[in-house]
Amino acid sequence: MNPKPKLAVWKFASCDGCQLTLLDCEDELLAIAEEIEIAHFPEASRAVMEGPYDLSLVEGSITTPHDAERIQEVRRCSKFLVTIGACATAGGIQALRNFQDVEEFIRIVYAHPKYISTLEKSTAISEHIKVDFELRGCPISKEQLVEVISAFLNGRKPNTPTHSVCMECKLQGTVCVMVAHGTPCLGPITHAGCGAICPAYNRGCYGCFGPKETPNVASLSHWWNQLGVEREDILRALRTFNAEAEPFRKESDNYEA
Amino acid sequence: MKRKSRTIKVDYLARVEGEGALYIDIEEGHLKDVKLKIFEPPRFFEALLRGRRYSEAPDITARICGICPIAYQMSSSHAMENALHTTVDGQLRALRRLIYCGEWIESHALHIYMLHAPDFLGYPDAITMAKEHPDVVKRGLRLKKAGNEILKIVGGREIHPINVQVGGFYKAPSKQSLALLAEELKWAQDAALETVRWTAKLPMQDFQQDYEFVALRHPAEYPFNEGRLVSSKGLDIDIADFDLHFEEEHVEHSNALHCIHKGHGAYHVGPLARYSLNFDQLPPMVQQVALENHLPKICSNPFQSIVVRSIEVLYACHEALRIISEYEVPPKPAIEMQAGPGIGHGCTEAPRGICYHRYELDEKGNIMDARIVPPTSQNQKMIESDLRKFVSQYLHLSDEELTWRCEQAIRNYDPCISCATHFLKLHVKRN
Q: Which of A115, A202, A208 sits opposite B171 (nearest CB)?
């Protein structure tokens, strides 16, 4: 029998929520561990097996000079590398510094700025290394994570739709909050995967899965305008957890005062 | 051969949330220095909140921590309501306690079964432990899932729930959806009782400390969201006076700010503090279970925190069932807020201890200044102090043994380093 493939989980600047998603697979975790060797997962185990690793899950964005070097090492010891979550795929909420002066940010939070080592920008993993697959979301969806692992083990492409949250609402039969209640919603331009939770809870989508493939962001912001949303609030809506994702960033720049 | 001096370095602490390291300096067989180093990269939340709407704070601050997002959503919501002179009560207040029960059950079960218990039984992780104790690990996972189910139904999803807003919720759950939760919670309450009995029998080190415990205290209930801030050494203040009594220091070896009680020094927040300061507020059934399992009313041994967490899981299941049995759908899912200027404070009990927020708003309700003091930065000094006393007893051990012991002393606090940056590789230096 061949040895089990080895799984590694890596963390960069993040909240730990996406790697926690693996531990949140309460029904599947022990079965997953039967099929794949959890070889490097410091949040869950003090036992570390040496690389190379067959599957690496990378959480978090690059924000320090040290991490910019570390991600290169992670790539070198990983055969198939998947970035998980908005921080890893788009820079995360901490990429809001990219629109400001980071020195000012450091002064606001820390008494002794000279102790802090940080980069000017928070960047996605794909800006530093070749990424084999990206899983979106803040946080990622548990079902999609299990799908990615299962597809990897079976040597097939993961089945994760690239359409919009809007489409997920239609598939579920959720009444459109924008049409029916005039609630501003990012669903038409946001990548599917969450299961369109927000509209089902009577709120507009806030874009935590980032832009879908070929989104028409300008058209949607025009519609928001028609609903009476102030320019500065359109700017804020586009600049949250995926602010540095290009379609969101480009349109948000048009709303900068 | 006896080495007189050595340095032990643990470069990456395992089974904690976030990134930290530990340095231990031993000279001439005496402990010279212990440093808990947090190298989790800074993410500047207080800075990036400036200029955002008051209403955005719950969703943004949730992203500080994927393990305890509710703590951030609750502290920020309460702070904003305080700034805008609004009080949330009735069923909406009860729903907030219910969602917090979910987070305590989920976070505590994760720590008890997956992060902490393997230390007591000598396993590197829960998955290895599951090979010899499959039923125990399965019970832990199902218990954790029961907590997550509350988050999913009331909050929309387990991590970074979407249903919380300043003033209440976007949608109030139906009676039926909560009734379905109750079925699994009845099982969870029994499983929590088993958990208390199981953890109480784990091999336990005797390491009694003279802590200053700090926690919320409410006149009528075990604290989640509200109360005065009290300590075991006489502090009793309104949360708005937090800054008068506590201060954060920025030290060179850490990206987390160290918090101290002015004039007193290090203090201890979390389950041990909450339990020891609020034992009398636990329902008689829970009190009785604690005493039957030989847990004292004031618990000062951090290794016993695993038993105290189990007691809190039992309480959270009991409280969740009470709230569900008395639930009526509120007339509106949220109180309508009026944006305006103000200063507001919020302090709630995250699974790891008090999480304090303060915001200053301008006339449009935009955030001008934000301050967030997470539980782990408050415990950081106490952890170092524990380590100093703890390590001294074990200097004769090999580096590998000593490292594991130190990790255990740290894991007692269930530290969340992602929160605190604002945990652990070990570096032991023996010359």
A: A202
Query: Is position B288 within any domain?
Result: no
Asked whether residue A191 is assigned to any structural domain, the reply reads yes
The whole-angstrom separation of Cα B227 and Cα A24 is 31
Length of chain B: 431
In a shared domain, residues A119 and A236: no
Q: Is B22 on the interface with A (CB under 8 A)?
A: no
Containing structural domain, residue A204: 165-254
DSSP E strands, B106-167: 164-165
* Partners of residue B43 in chain A, C-beta under 8 Å: 13, 63, 93-94
pLDDT in the model for residue B423: 34
ipTM (interface pTM)? 0.96
Q: Please say whether the beta carbons of A91 and A124 come within 8 A.
A: yes
Greater pLDDT, B6 or B247? B247
- Is there a domain that residue B229 lies in? no
Q: Does A202 touch chain B (CB under 8 A)?
A: yes
Q: What is the pLDDT of residues A187-200, one digit of tens each?
A: 999 999 999 999 99
Q: B residues 401-420 near A, CB within 8 Å? A: 404, 407, 416, 418
Give B 137-166 residues with CB within 8 A of chain A: 137-138, 141-142, 144-145, 148, 156-160, 162-163, 165
C-alpha–C-alpha distance, residues B415 and B15, integer Å: 10
Out of B14, B18, B137, whose CB is closest to A45? Answer: B14
Measured in degrees and rounded to the nearest 5, phi and psi for residue B258 equal -90, 130
Q: DSSP characters for A72-128?
A: HHHHHTEEEEEEESHHHHH--GGGGGGGS-HHHHHHHH-S-GGG----SS-B-GGGT
How far CA B96 is from CA of A50, B74, B99, in Å, comes to 45, 8, 5
Q: Is the pLDDT of residue B3 over 60?
A: no
Positive or negative, the CA dihedral B286, B290, B291, B297 is negative
Please report whether residue A159 resides in a domain: no
B38 lies in which domain range? 6-205+326-430
Q: Let me know whether A105 and A17 are in one domain.
A: yes
How many C-beta atoms surround the C-beta of residue B97 within 10 A? 20
Tens-digit pLDDT profile for residues B16-30 = 666 678 888 888 888
Across the interface, do A46 and B158 touch by the CB < 8 Å criterion? Answer: no
Q: Is B79 among the domain residues?
A: yes
User: CA-to-CA distance for A7 and A22, rounded, in angstroms?
Assistant: 12
Contacts of B209 (CB under 8 A, 6+ apart): B300, B301, B302, B386, B389
Residue found under tokens 């470069």: B11
Can you list the positions of beta strands (E) in B240-341? 246-249, 258-261
